[in-house]
Amino acid sequence: MTAVPAPAARTRGRDAARALAAELSKLVSLPATWLTLGGAAAVNLILTFAFALAGLRGATGTTSAVDIGLASIGYTQAGFVVLGVLAACSEYDGGQIRTTLTAMPRRALQLTAKHLAVVIVVLPAAAITAASGVVFATGVLGDTAAPMTPDRVAGALSGATGCLVLTTSIGTAVGALVRRTLAAVVVLLGYFFVAGPLLRDHTPVARYLPDSAGFALWFPAADEAGAVTPAQGALLLTAWAIVSIVVAVSAYHRRDV
Amino acid sequence: MRALAAEVSKLASLPAAWIAAAAGVLVPGVIAAITASSALGAITRGAGTTAGIDTGYQELAFGVVGAIILGVVAMSSEYFTDSAESGGGRQITTSLTAVPSRLRLLLAKTAAVAIASALLAVAASAVTMSVIRVVLGEHAPALGTGDVPRLAGVVCYWVYTALLAFGVTVLTRHGVVPLAVFVVNTSVVTVTYLLTKITPLANYLPDMAGVRMFIRELDVGTAGIGPLAGCLVMTGWVAALLVIAVVAFTRRDA
Amino acid sequence: MITVDRLVKRRGSKEILAGISFRARPGRVTGFLGPNGAGKSSTLRILLGLDRATSGTALIHSVPFARLRDPLATVGAVLDGSGAHRARTGRAHLRWVARSAGLPRTRVDEVLEIVGLTDAASKRVGGYSLGMGRRLALATALLADPEILILDEPVNGLDPDGIRWIRTFLRERAASGRTVLLSSHLMGELAETVDDVVVVDGGRVVANGTLEEVTGAYRTLEDAFFALTTGGAP
């Protein structure tokens, strides 16, 4: 049953489309995907409520609904990182990795397709999470909210969405590299929540690291010279995501399963 | 007693437990080195004065990450499923058939986690305080008798946090959620700290109360909870959670 | 056709495969027999591109597995367990595999019918018994109706009904001109199913030929096996 050889480019395109379809199907049919996204969105609303209450009391430095609405994104990020890790590490449950690699033996293609599938699923979820936070904050703050420009809102929302999506991709890459859910979660969350912020306080170089770059995408920027603008932050974080994916794919390509 | 020995042996032979130990010692040590050297820089430049009263203790508050990992993996390792070719078994089955009384098993595990995290806290404190002294030299705050209750507070806090993480893992039967929640809450600006901005009741949350056992300068304004009261509050939380965990564990299917 | 030529695999200082060579031909069921730790699974994993060999080749239609144009339509593999994530339903698992090969959703129901899992398809794989998991793995392998079937310990976990069913199924597939390679350490069952036998022990092939040739002067395949190998895992 040898088929007539099709031109290589067309086969690769077809394989890529199929791999993407398979990875999307996998991600969507995994209950943990929806539990994590739902949990992250819920936690985001709860924390936004807390921040908004603090804002009503004047305890926050600002009354902008955008800033308050997005203040919890830093914490919600944790849920998205966990999702990224699960997307990669769930392969190692029940021996599914063997099924995946016998169905899609082109490993680089398959892992890249997985990352793309994660982005496709997370993008709307992140946008909804960020937007719901701002809307909720606007509702709670009511008249006390400072006026917002559409530019600021659009910029902050797209920045927050971008930050969440790129951080999730880094989570998937690290998960694929490390292969154990708990280890990847500890390393990533330990970096983003403990090591990263401390480095940020003590060395100026730390502003180019992924957590600070992500922050710069949506957090109102300080006016000091050398601060990272949202655009620069986006470029930096994208670069970090690409580097981590490349490292993960190269390791994946060579190793025994 | 045999059950306790078995649980200690299990924990000691778990690679993840040693990684937790390494994290518990390295994290506060490295952070202490960084903060101390930047404080030294400020002092020599004449910008700052002496190092603050919480030097070393603040770093140990971060190092509790190691205790968290320890508490989580002590229980989550029971629920890892073997690959199906090995029959898809989980260690919990072996544990429950080796020690049929579930209460005894859980108590033994709790004790093992408490002992291990206490030892880890002692080691971490020793390392952190030494690093501070080495880096800051003469500018380091002197270690006096007033530090003894504070260091005891550090050990207590670490043990209690490990037990809290352990208790939650007993309930969830996997490690991801408790690990994520507790690690995120160890960050520089913890969620519970933010909640204190909204309501002073948040000062009675376990970590906010417990941290008063050794941190003197807390930026929370009004609530006047002393170290002893903080210890009692945290004890209450730990006891309540462990009771719930025991009830759930003894009643449900494995 | 499967061709394995002087396959060597070393992990650290341990030599897992010390030069395995054999062929599995179309129209025949080839049995890969050996004690635990002999290198059967390692060979199959290298054949399927899961592990890398230190030297030697393992080819399917003269190309390595990773370069097959339509892997699922060429080779169906049944390895350990169910090969599925415990939280998914059987049907969801088959669906994503079907998508990876560009197969229509109707094919999923067809293979479920073949292995007899239609009733359990909407249940989580985590709740499957050992036998049901194995049948799911077989269903996955059959999705694209491949010309080659590679099975690692296929009867492991099946009840007597399932064992007889799979023996008949594999023989039918070989009879229709397809290739079947299966590994096992259950001699009695293997002797009922295979045409050709490859016996491995300690990473080496110790016998290779038709069932009659390998059984030779011994009464049963089992006797021949024990005579040929060191008699079990250390």
Observed structural traits:
heterotrimer, B: about 250 residues, mainly alpha, 10 helices, about 0% strand, C: about 230 residues, alpha/beta, six-stranded mixed sheet, 9 strands
Radius of gyration of chain C from CA coordinates: 18 Å
Arithmetic mean of pLDDT of chain A? 89
Outline the low-pLDDT stretches of chain A.
1-6
The number of distinct helices of chain A, counting runs of at least 4 residues, comes to 10
Overall mean confidence score, pLDDT of chain C? 91
What structural category arises from helix and sheet content of chain A?
Answer: mainly alpha
Largest beta sheet: strand ordering of chain C:
5-6-7-3-8-9
Helix and strand sequence of chain C: EEEHEHEHHHEHEHEEHH
Roughly how much helix do the residues of chain C carry, as a percent range?
25-40%
pLDDT < 50 stretches of chain C: none
What does this structure look like?
Helix content of chain A is 76%, strand content 0%. Chain A has helices at residues 8-28, 31-56, 65-70, 73-89, 96-103, 107-141, 150-178, 181-202, 210-216, 230-254. In chain A, helix 4 (73-89) runs antiparallel to helix 6. Helices cover 70% and strands 0% of the residues of chain B. Chain B has 10 helices and no strands. Classes of the chains: A mainly alpha (257), B mainly alpha (254), C alpha/beta (234). The A-C interface holds A 1-3, 5-6, 11, 14, 18-19, 21-23, 25-26, 29-32, 90-91, 93-96, 98-99, 101-107, 254, 256-257 and C 45, 48-52, 61, 65-66, 68-75, 77, 79-89, 92-93, 95-97, 99-102, 125, 137, 140, 147.
